[in-house]
Each structure stands twice: as C-alpha cells, then as structure tokens.
Amino acid sequence: MSSYSKLIIFIIVLIFISAAIVFIDSSVDNINKTMPEISDLIEKGDNAYNDAVELVNNKNYDESMSKAISAGNSYNASLYNLQVIKSNYSSDINDVQNRYIDIVIKELELKINAADKLKEAIDCFKVNSNSTGTSYASEANDLIFEASNYQNERDTIVKENPKVFKQDSII
User: How many CB atoms within 10 Å of residue 138?
Assistant: First the structure.
C-alpha cells in the first residue's frame, strides 16, 4: 500500500473520530442546555399549582383553574423534554443520571395527575358539589405528597453525586 493510500485512510479515520467527538459533545451540550429549562418548568409548575390551591381556598375558582392548567402544562412540557433526553441521548448518560431522570419522570407523572385532580375538584366546587370536590382535592394532595418523596430522592442523588451534578447544570 502506498504512503498516499495510508495518508488517505489516516485522514478518513481522523475525520470519523472527530465527528464522533463532536457528536458526543453536542449531545452532552444539548442535555446540559435542556436540564435547566426542565428545572425551571418544574418550578414554574410548582408555583402555579401552589397558587391554584391558595385560590381554591379563597373560592376564586376561575383563576384557580387557570393556574392549575398552567401547572399541568409546565409539568407536561418538562416530562416531554425528559422523555426526549431519554430516547435521544440514552447512550450518553450514565447510570446515576439515568436513575435521576427516571425519578423526575415519576415525580412529574404524579404532579400531572395531581393537577388533573385539582382541576376536577375546582369543577366540583364551582357547582357546589363540595363533598366530591373535597375528595378530588384530597387525592390531589396525596399525589403531591407522594411526588415530594420523589423530589427528596432526587435531591439526595444530587447531594451524593456532586461530580455528576455540577452547579451550573443538573447533568
């Protein structure tokens, strides 16, 4: 084989290696960009949910419904983004990160269900079906409590793995 052929093969191999490195870096960059957005959406959802509960307690059902819908939308957007990360970048995340994402998904599924139960409660309270509304509100409260257990588990994973979860990004 001529030295020219060896040079061409070397250049082609070098291009493939460079492309792989760029792809891995870009996927990690995408994950690192998306995770803060997910955290912000969860926080926005939590704030909207808490506002909705406060508004229900003050019998302001229209605004409460708006806040409950907003909470559900924020949680759903976060869940969608996490599912995209899991499906598109699963080979680029380690076991700790994967466990963290699974926990956040469970937390969000519970919060979505809680927001739905809260909306059902609001609908009942609007038509003075207070007993049924209270039942739905209680279910929502139980779901949020269960979700908080996952949130605590998520916080523990971050504390136990500071090298994996840097200050400027969650992954």
Answer: 12
Instruction: Identify whether the C-beta of residue 34 lies closer than 8 Å to the C-beta of residue 80.
Output: no
Provide the 3-class DSSP secondary structure of residue 71: helix
Contact in structure between 161 and 96 (CB atoms under 8 Å): yes
Torsion-angle region of residue 116: left (phi > 0), alpha (psi -120 to 50) or beta? Answer: alpha
Neighbours of 158 (CB within 10 A): 13
Query: What is the spatial distance between Cα 150 and Cα 156, in angstroms, rounded to a whole number?
Result: 10
Whether 137 contacts 117, CB under 8 Å: yes
Q: Is 91 left (phi over 0), alpha (psi -120 to 50) or beta?
A: alpha
Q: Walk along the chain (171 residues) and give the pLDDT tens digit of each residue.
A: 666 666 666 667 666 565 444 444 455 666 767 778 888 999 999 999 999 999 999 999 999 999 999 999 999 999 999 998 888 877 778 888 889 999 999 999 999 999 999 999 999 999 999 999 999 999 999 999 999 999 999 889 989 988 877 654 444
Contact by Cβ (8 Å): 118, 136: yes
**Alpha-carbon distance 16 to 163, whole Å?**
29
- Of the candidates 120, 139, 115, the one whose C-alpha atom is nearest the C-alpha of residue 67 is 115
